[in-house]
From TrEMBL, chains A, B, C, D:
Name this protein carries in UniProt: Prephenate dehydratase
Main EC class the enzyme belongs to: lyase
Domain Prephenate dehydratase: 8-188
Site, Essential for prephenate dehydratase activity: residue positions: T181
UniProt key word Hydrolase: no
């Protein structure tokens, strides 16, 4: 608890982002110390330095895919552990200062991802809109409210538009109406969250060499134990073209025998493997487990081998 | 040739980007009509509409990975074909207007990717630098030269700094000194580039369902024919969390029997597969081909089966 | 038809064996010329030399497994083709000359396989029975009828016991009451039997080297095309310990696209592969075929690739 | 030691067979009690009943393949353990009573396997030889020496010909001059033979269902752990056509981590698996072991997982 009576959390700021909304879903976070960070990397570094107990950052967006900054920052450096996940629906509004009509809007500020997700609405409703890049949707809204930046409107969350008292010229303007982002709460190494039966395990796996056989060998560690993967993403290591690591989410908890066995198999072929945590799924969906990959099957096999080694 | 005497190319602009540098490596492009586009999508749409003959866009960066906008834009819409690739080393400079000393720099404009790649140098050389997002490195430089934007320096390519007459306060400031980006020249469907023996084939493959078995089945189409993959990237389809397609580069040309056979196998299990082209590798590196996956082995097997079907 | 008006068949004799019973199930065989052979090898050689049109030999017994002599003889030498199969239930009787009571039986002659299959009954009904090896069950019965060999009873088929007028001291004395043997009719190379939708294809596949990976690569040629194997047997090549070939029966006809594709894949990795025929299953059981391995899927994939190669 | 001062062994008799020659290679067996048995099954049953300490039986012949009687007898019934193997070169002679010239030989007695292995020599040297089946090569020789059976010569081992004082009309008459048979010494369950680094592990694995996928899943348990198979044979269960089990020899000892892990994986998917022993190879050949399947890799993976489960 970092020496204080209340827990402390960093998050990808500024205030009013979807990330803060995710953090507020954590029990007790409403009364906790909440520290906005300008980048995912600095939010995570605050955990590593001990400045905060944990950090809330986005990991996967249903439209844009994995959040590269998070995937990359968590994959290297001092070890961290994901302890919780939250799902937040993503909806955008076109916000403007009081008195601005939709017909007046020429220049629109927002983050590049939000701009990409609202192109159809903007093309249909704002003649020749000019895009002004901003470092976040909340920053665009804040600059707009402050009269800075020389633009007429911002694409942002309803939350931040409301907080800043901006007028809403268009509601739910994203191309995909049920977009959702998954956020993770990241702490330091320590006791694992308890197994719930509907868990997720996140791993970072260096891809040994660039041929399909090597990737198949890695995937086989999961497939052979009946462990499903709900997310698999490649990320460049930054060293040279074609040098990748894989970021994957596997169904199950490391205390499930089939997951533990898969992890040991992965460690043998790729010892640089990094375990990023086992934690409850936000959607509470349990995987189907076949008999031969159940804990019972693992226990029975261990006992059978024991009798052989004991000479019985 | 689009009705004109000279070929015409769109590219991800503005002028002075690394993309234009890639385009200029294409024989004859120096005398061609070159049309900068504001986004990858619009560069590609100019090909689809027939406004230009082909478009040069980035596809893969050794530091940032696949270029999402390209991967996504080429994966849907009217079919396109990659006909050529170019490799361009990526080096950044910190550019300022004449008279600005390094010690004066507080606010630095650039594209988000460039900012991410120069953080170590900036943290070490510019006290408390503030990041000003820009839509491209060239745009940042141009605004700086024009005295617009309220910032003191820009991170951009040496090419554009030189063209604009900006002073260089720091050379080769990227964290990784041998960063390189791969660019592709994209045309419409038509005759395939000739097989050279050192070719690449690019595909978009919908991932049927989210389990490792399905992905392994896809990878096995390559592995079973000894076809190496030099790049494999997942991209969300944008429909819902966990719904992905794969963008892959396979060694070889579709006129190689083993590649053709792999493509047919892929089509059977994933008929939504999209072929994006077979083209010569910029590095001219030929793959090792085992005897049992050679064209000779395919021909011999076809002939053998023919004798059986003929009742001989 | 070998120059004669009626077809001619060799079979594993002597007369009265189960093999002759199988041959008599072939339409028209009752009026054909039937030539008993003393060994499977000589029955097959009669086909190779042109002395007969085809040979009936056993290939698989539900109790004893593959018939080694057949598997080995058909795997080498001039090529042969299986054109038909028959299933014959195997039942044994204990036969003796008139006047012999069960209590008088001390020495029993039969073929080693029959002896093995009737041990339980013999142990229960004949005190201290002594085994007298014979080259076939029919030969044992014939010697018994002729008063030769110095034994009291023979284990043979009901058919031969009846023909020779022997008394039956025990009926259906096999340990397994529903034993069945599969027989094959083997001709020379020629036109394939027509595809019926419920076919079998028999192959001989040299195992390249003695590791599981090589065998898996072979099996994957079937598995990847959804081709089921109803029989898989290893046989030594006779060269050295651990040097084996595989004899397999695959569901389907070589004119099925998935089977043809699997055979081509096998030929590439193991060019010494031998095709022994596609023929209708005696039990008329059709395999389930998944969409992606149907003839339609193969045709669609071929057409799709054709459009790419044509530059469309 | 069965209550006696000297060990006792059963073996597939009669005296003078190659099996007795194999038994005599076991240290101390020359002074042990040696009990010939008429069948492999009865030799093994003598171990099960405690009548002897162990039994020597043939398991694999380089010409004829696996010895079915051994594979089948050891696969069912009370559990047994292979504790040792011996390799014996197989050479045959044509033996006759003194005074018989080669030109006089018409009828030759021997075991069916021996007859098959000497066909080329016999066809070349004895005009129109007639085959007289015998239950073993030694029995044929013994009957010949006793003047029984009405035949002129026997095909048998040089050992038994010498013991019986028979004349040798042809030496080394087998078609394959370097034929060898592998024999196994089988005891009851108990302490495992020590790991030597050049070991073999023998298993009986029921094949779950008759499709290549199931067999591949079984083979993958070995392949995924880098465990080579030096012998793999199918045997019918005797229940119905197409119902098989597999008899395999794997390189390595159950105390090797990779072998133990493979066995546990097999037990999970096929709990009816039977372990038949780990024992030193007669040829002392050690397998190549890749780093990721070494004991060290297993230990490192176990320790790594331990730190995760401990919350470190």
């Amino acid at each position: 608890m970092n020496g204080a009576d209340v827990p402390s959390y960093s998050y990808l700021g500024p205030e009013g982002t979807f990330t803060e909304a995710a953090l507020l879903k954590v029990p007790g976070a409403g009364h906790a110390r909440r520290v906005p960070a300008s980048t995912v990397g600095s939010a995570l570094d605050a955990v590593r330095s001990g400045a905060v107990d944990a950090a809330m950052v986005p990991i996967e967006n249903s439209v844009e895919g994995g959040v590269s900054a998070t995937l990359d920052s968590i994959a290297v450096g001092d070890p961290l552990r994901i302890v919780r996940e939250e799902l937040v629906p993503i909806t955008f509004v076109l916000a403007a200062r009081a008195g601005t009509a939709l017909a007046d809007v020429r220049r629109i500020a927002t983050h590049g991802h939000a701009w990409a997700q609202c192109r159809a609405w903007v093309d249909g409703h704002v003649r020749d809109a000019e895009y002004v890049p901003s470092s976040s949707t909340a920053a665009a809204a804040r600059d707009l409210a402050a009269g800075e930046g020389g633009f007429d409107a911002a694409i942002c969350s309803p939350l931040v538009a409301g907080r800043l008292g901006l007028a809403v010229l268009g509601e739910d303007i994203g191309d995909i109406s049920d977009a959702v982002t998954r956020f993770i709460l990241v702490g330091g190494p320590g006791a694992l969250p308890p197994r719930t039966g509907a868990d997720r395990t996140t791993l970072v796996i260096p891809l040994p060499v660039d041929h399909p056989g090597a990737l198949m060998q890695i995937l086989d560690q999961f497939a052979a134990r009946g462990v499903n993967l709900s997310r698999i993403e490649s990320r460049p290591t930054g060293q040279f073209l074609g040098d990748y690591f894989f970021s994957v989410d596997a169904d199950g908890h490391v205390e499930d025998a089939r997951v533990a066995d898969a992890l040991k198999g992965l460690h043998r072929i790729s010892p640089g493997l990094r375990f990023l945590g086992s934690y409850a799924r936000a959607d509470r969906r349990s995987p189907a487990v076949e008999r031969h990959t159940s804990d019972d099957a693992f226990t029975a096999a261990d006992e059978w081998l024991g009798t052989i080694l004991d000479g019985r």
